[in-house]
Amino acid sequence: MTGRRFEAFVLGPGASTGELTMLEIDGAAGSGQGLSLVVPELSPDSVRGLIRRLQEGADALVCRSVSDITEVLGRVGERFGDEADEVRREALALLPATAGVSDAMARAILDGMAADWTHKRLRALVAAEFEDPAALDGITAIRGREVMAVGPRLCVQIVSGSVPGVGVSALIRSLIVKAPTLLKPGLGDVVLPVLFARALRAEDEGIANALAVVYWPGGSTALEAAALAEADVVTVYGSDDTVASVRAAAPPTARVVGYHHRVSLGVIGREALASETVGDVAAHVARSVGMFDQRGCVCPQVIYVERSGATEPVGFAEVLAEALAELETRLPSGPLSPEEGAVLQQMRGNAELMAATGRATVFHGGDEASWSVISETDALPGASCLGRSVRVRPLRDATDLAGELGRLQGHLQTVAYAGLGERLSALAADWARMGVSRVAPFWDVSFPPPWWLHDGRGPLQELVRWVEIDRP
Amino acid sequence: MSADENDASTSVTFTKLAKELEGRFRRGLSDAWSEDDFEELARGVFRHQFEACATYQAYCRKRGVTPESVATWEDIPAVPATAFKYFDFVSAHGDVEATFLTSGTTRGEEQRGRHHVPRLDLYRASLMPPFEAALLPERRPLRFLSLVPDPKTVPESSLSFMVGAAAETWATETHWLVDEAGNVDAAALGDVLDLIAASGEPVLLLGTALAFVHVLESDGNRLGPLPEGSRIMETGGFKGARRTVSRERLYDQIAQATGVPSERVVNEYGMTELLSQLYEPVLAEGSESVGVHVPPPWLRVRALDPLTLRPVAAGQDGILAYFDLANLGSISHILTEDVGSVVNGRMRLRGRASGAEPRGCSRAMDDLMTAAEGHR
Q: Chain B: nearest CA to A301, how far in angstroms?
């Protein structure tokens, strides 16, 4: 392989890479951009050794105060937002190839993510989740009870590669609760956790000794089993199948936090459809669809538009298409792999057949861009959420949306909204009962704050165990 | 023209073209097809399909394409292979002789594609020469051992039809060894293996990758030894299967179990939406042709850019598109979900997309909705 090489691992304390064989893998998602990732060839024994050393570093982490840890993590995180910092520059140089996104998208994603990795935001995360953060440092009286929140002795995190930055947010969470952490990132999200772990080592060796970042190919069951065997908390991000397989492989004593397949959708109320506002609304919708090139679970896939507004649903689809075309010039989408293109072209072709037979209206970026808008009256088959593709469906009234949601069972995540006015609270309560865990304006959906109730629960609370002292 | 006159004209054109193509197909693979031959037939076929299939005509017109506007067959609009699930493409008048269905997947609730075939003789004429060239280069009849179900039990399978049609001409005897659900009749298989071991005559063993895996992984099942000179056709990949094995490993296992060297295992590439098939010419050309699939002269394959859908350079991976003259009765130009490269008209497959799932935690919402309905 020619071109750049990136050492895509941080093995934690005292590890000698001399004992391990190194592999070079294509880090550019087959795009031929010439970036190889150097990763260790692991064995179950080497994974066990890695974990042993992390656990040995646990004492140094546990004796630190949560405010101290948060401050250190914030200092490291802030480097990713600092234009003058070499860590940010290296991240921006590597992200386009490894994550398959455009340069502008890499910058937008890093800006959005790193805004939450600051000391201020992380302190706010701890405050949002713990009535008294001192409970993470020792026995603390909270509302008349003596309690303590204890982090896991080992947290193993298996992260998907679809959205870069998720891995860093994940490792920040487990380090805040003082858990030695083994993070296995997905291939598309390997750069940021590795850079973070290195920068952490430069900042604070004691905390860094409790963190290792290693990649292994999905489906390496022996490695996964070795990693999971010692974990008392496991988090896994990925498809339903990935989550199911990790659950099955984890020991019964481990708590498995699964972030499985989720879908998000949007709803636009009549108040937003006035001719003077609809262009701005469409721009926000376009950004929520385009950010992460529709790969994130927060990206809305279907936009329901109320029929009673000044702009009809099909008219809105057309305005949205213009907004996506405009977005493409500022925030271009990443290259399509042939496999992704194959799925996209099936979807487009089917939509055009539907359009030819009067069942849909289609707008797309043709041979210039992957964005596609399909306006349909009923849910047509052949859906796909690849390459900034979005469907627009009419809704008689926003109250009808809850009926549509029932079929999505446990897979719902965000409802993005615009133009619901005073009706929002009542509607949100209905959607909540159907399984939605977040209701947010379109301009906010891409980057939820660090304290968001991730798929319905506080992300730090998910990781800790509560202990209570009773006294006579 | 009145509707009746229109139907009559469609019918005449279809029959005329079908007869011409059948005659041409029967001349076999060594028949020299010039670019002009293909071009002329392709445009004739397009004109017919445009006139006969209203959905296709509307689709072409939306793109501003008519039979008069195309400069070459490459300009003729391709329909996505998955559209066979949602539309009934019939470019003929009157009843169809067969409707073949695509295989279901493990998400069994998914709709199956339907390929309507107005004239089975055209299918027969197209399937025989490539089959013979790839599997029967000596043109000598032999015994067929089929791990593909009998077409009598699964009339909706184009693969079963193909094996049945080939067997009618070339099999001294055919042993159908799996039922319509794909279950292997182990006792019958054992009996046949004893019989052929005693006779020592070479056989043709045919099956899908999945069928071979089932046989190889069930305790007590044998698959050989097969007499010298035997050959094997493997097809189908693992579409919709929960588990897969690599091709190399599967062929090693097949070779070990049958005693037939792995370079005599011929991969057939076909799909319900295409009536013509491609084969690896390993029997004729040896192991350097492993992984290379050769189309018959009436089937053209191109690798296209994932976004622009323009042809990519020779040897570069792209989305595979086929123009199959044998698809006269439906639509000839098909854009597949498969990825591969093309060099000198021969295709090399990269990976068989099984509805390539989007990366990460996002998943198509309607896909989830369909799944939820299927579970009810």
A: 7
CA distances from B271 to A183, B55, B63, B100 (A): 42, 22, 26, 10
The Cα–Cα gap between A218 and A202 comes to 30
d(C-alpha A327, C-alpha A344), whole Å: 19
**Chain B residues touching residue A345 (CB < 8 angstroms):** 80, 306, 309, 319, 335
Q: Does residue B87 lie within any of the structural domains?
A: no
3-state secondary structure of B373: helix
CA gap B107, A310 in Å, rounded:
41
Cβ neighbours of B65 in A, within 8 Å: none
Q: A392-420: string of b/e by CB count within 10 Å (b at 16+)?
A: bbbbeebeebbebbebbeebbbbbbbbbb
pTM, full prediction: 0.91
β partners of residue B231: B204
The owner of tokens 């070079």 is A24
pLDDT tens profile A48-73? 999 999 999 899 999 999 999 999 99
From first CA to last CA, the distance across chain A in angstroms is: 69
Q: Domains in chain A and their CATH numbers?
A: 4-261 (3.40.605.10), 263-444 (3.40.309.10)
User: Which of B82, B360, B373 faces A346 most closely, judged by CB atoms?
Assistant: B82
Residues 6+ apart with CB under 8 A from A379: A391, A393, B366, B369
Residue B275 belongs to a domain with what CATH number? 3.40.50
Query: What ipTM score was computed for the predicted complex, to two decimals?
Result: 0.91
| Weakest mean pLDDT among A113-117, A410-414, B63-67 | A410-414
